[in-house]
Write a structure and sequence with these properties.
Helix content is 6%, strand content 47%. The protein is mainly β. Bound molecules: fe (ii) ion.
Amino acid sequence: MMINFKNVGKHYASRGQEKMKEVLMDSAGIGPEIHYYMIRGGVEQKNITVWEPGTVSGEYIKTYGHYHVGDLSENYWVVYGQGVAMLQKLAENEKGEMIPDMVEEFRVIKVRAGKKIFMPTKFGHLLANIGKTYLVTADDSPVDFGDRDPSSFPGHANYELVKKMRGFAYYVVEYNGKPALRRNPLYKSIKKEKFGGLPLIK
Ligand SMILES: [Fe+2]
């Protein structure tokens, strides 16, 4: 089998507390030095993400979250652990640009090992680890190793809209030992929402 080892040194990246502060429910909360680890191989080889377990000021450790640039969907396979996936599609203006604080559709999906999640085009996505173990996923998003920082910030992903809103429309928080949702007050409107059985708390 022909495997190209040329980019192996660029495969690994991690997301730490400093960067995650931008999108945490409590930006001053005490969190782990590293929130999650990424090994990026792209469409064929797949990408692996590993989440630390735990909470930061009650919010479960999550990925930063992003929207895809262009017409690109993505599949996630949960390999180990328990998670909550959040998907949100923003409203668009007449030029077809996304409006950062207006959500057209919001979905929550509870997942565990063996489950596959489809992220449709235009739906921003993130996953939170709600278990006591690592959460591990594989996904098939593309990586261009010609990008400046391909494994940490692949070119197909837009992080700016999430940064601007300090996260998604809801935060996944621990409430009586179980996952619940807390609204992010910065969002102006949410048209359609499905909470996947998770309670909403104040
Ligand atoms: Fe993605």
